[in-house]
């Protein structure tokens, strides 16, 4: 019988110790999805039959390989590994609607470059996962697929816009996946669902093949990256997804945490637009500081960065700024209409009557956009440039910054409508182009995931990735939510 080896990518699971076939692995994840998806509504379209056929081909390939499995592992590092993909990415034969009713018949004819690289490495996609409407909200809810739920508490949100990925991985029904992030859309779902994620340095992973396409200055802020149940899977996933650009990151270089400089920023300085940071998150970050100092014999410096208080204003101003060609970005109202602008006030009226094809969140974003200037104020530009300089000087090539992922634990469904600017804790790093790793830190007294962001200087992705590995061992990493369902987690 052909054996299946995916030690890197399935570390920590049963498959690390067992010799099993690829068909058995894929079938195990299919079974798990079928158990939990009726509860969490994360996977919106499966390709189970095709995945099992591809797994059988993997088993045949391994059985016929005369050079040994090590040869296959070098050439196809993800051979037979099941993955899931955010529905906003093109995956051949799968829908690519981004939760927009008017795109419900759109089927991808090709793969997005990042997805193609994973498939070329041997990965087997199981299907596509839910996202917020047009990927611009922190709750994965739309009128095409419905609402995605948090596996730790079904009454809480899974985050967005990659909330389907966060939920399916956090529930143990997938082990690795593909997400995108222009304001925290990888990191927020990873935080709320207790898993690891990485927003790479801007420009490292190809962003093509996802909807909606960025415009204006947005291509410099959008990032594609991995979402994983285990920290050690981030590095191989990033290396593959980045393709030749991975060489810029020196991912193979050894990292000694004792030689790094660590900084801690407990909050943004008190923006009146944002919620105060939950005391449990402040305490969790303090415990990380204490553990780093005790284990590594270093001193973590607490710093205050006053420009962070303007994170939302900076993010909003830069997202609406014209590109190098002088063209303003496509408006959200135009994206909602598929190229033909919708009228937000009219959609709001239709929403109150229950006949709008758009969510309240999407309509609200379009309304806010109407009053936003495409020319950022000189003050906000100065704050952005000052913040960029200060962080780049602070971090250099050997610094790691600890910063809250979000001021709140996973909120109840629809609650973010009342706290729409809280994503700024993640969004600011998209504007700055810095690499960030999201790391889980156990559970709150309510049983919800805790976590924090690890930020480094440009192209220093290996530093927060190495720190995440350490913190996974120190704090336990992903925690099994299966007891809430009475189901077994693989």
TrEMBL record:
It comes from Pygocentrus nattereri. Belongs to the amidase family. The active site is at 86 (charge relay system), 161 (charge relay system), 185 (acyl-ester intermediate). This is Amidase domain-containing protein. The keyword Transport does not apply. It comes from the Eukaryota. Residues 24-462 form the Amidase domain. The lineage of its organism: Eukaryota, Metazoa, Chordata, Craniata, Vertebrata. One of its GO terms (cellular component) is endomembrane system.
């Amino acid at each position: 019988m052909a054996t299946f080896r995916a030690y890197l990518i399935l570390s920590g699971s049963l498959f690390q110790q067992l010799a099993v076939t690829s068909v058995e692995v894929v079938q195990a994840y299919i079974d798990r999805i079928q158990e939990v998806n009726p509860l969490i509504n994360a996977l919106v379209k499966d390709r189970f039959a095709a995945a099992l056929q591809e797994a059988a081909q993997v088993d045949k390939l391994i059985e016929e390989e005369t050079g040994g499995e090590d040869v296959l592992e070098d050439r196809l590092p993800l051979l037979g590994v099941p993955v899931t993909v955010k529905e906003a990415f093109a995956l051949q034969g799968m829908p690519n609607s981004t939760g927009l009713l008017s795109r419900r018949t759109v089927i991808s004819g090709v793969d997005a470059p990042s997805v193609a690289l994973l498939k070329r490495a041997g990965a087997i996609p199981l299907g596509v996962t839910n996202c917020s409407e047009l990927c611009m909200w922190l709750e994965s809810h739309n009128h095409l697929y419905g609402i995605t739920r948090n596996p730790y508490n079904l009454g809480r949100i899974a985050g967005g816009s990659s909330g389907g990925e966060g939920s399916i991985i956090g529930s143990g029904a997938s082990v690795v996946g593909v997400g995108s992030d222009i304001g925290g859309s990888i990191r927020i779902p990873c935080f709320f669902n207790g898993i690891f994620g990485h927003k790479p340095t801007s420009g490292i992973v190809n962003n093509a093949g996802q909807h909606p396409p960025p415009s204006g200055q947005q291509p410099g802020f959008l990032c594609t990256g991995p979402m994983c149940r285990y920290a050690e899977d981030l590095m191989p996933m990033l290396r593959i997804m980045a393709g030749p650009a991975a060489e810029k990151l020196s991912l193979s270089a050894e990292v000694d945490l004792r030689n790094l400089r660590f900084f801690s920023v407990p909050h943004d300085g008190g923006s009146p637009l944002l919620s105060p940071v939950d005391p449990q998150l402040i305490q969790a970050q303090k415990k990380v500081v204490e553990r780093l100092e005790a284990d590594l014999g270093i001193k973590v410096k607490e710093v205050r960065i006053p420009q962070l208080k303007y994170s939302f204003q900076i993010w909003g101003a830069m997202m609406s700024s014209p590109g190098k060609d002088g063209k303003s970005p496509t408006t959200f109202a135009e994206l909602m209409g598929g190229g033909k602008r919708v009228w937000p006030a009219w959609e709001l009226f239709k929403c109150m009557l229950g006949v709008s094809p758009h969510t309240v969140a999407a309509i609200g974003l379009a309304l806010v956009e109407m009053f936003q200037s495409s020319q950022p104020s000189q003050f906000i530009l100065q704050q952005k440039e000052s913040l960029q300089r200060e962080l780049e000087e602070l971090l250099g090539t050997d610094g790691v910054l600890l910063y809250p992922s979000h001021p709140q634990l996973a909120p109840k469904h629809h609650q973010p409508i009342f706290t729409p600017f809280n994503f700024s804790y993640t969004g600011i790093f998209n504007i700055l182009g810095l690499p960030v790793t999201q790391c889980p830190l156990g559970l709150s007294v309510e049983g919800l995931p805790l976590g924090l962001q690890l930020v480094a200087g440009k192209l220093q992705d290996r530093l927060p990735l190495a720190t995440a590995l350490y913190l996974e061992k120190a704090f336990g990493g992903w925690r099994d939510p299966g007891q809430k369902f009475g189901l077994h987690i693989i």
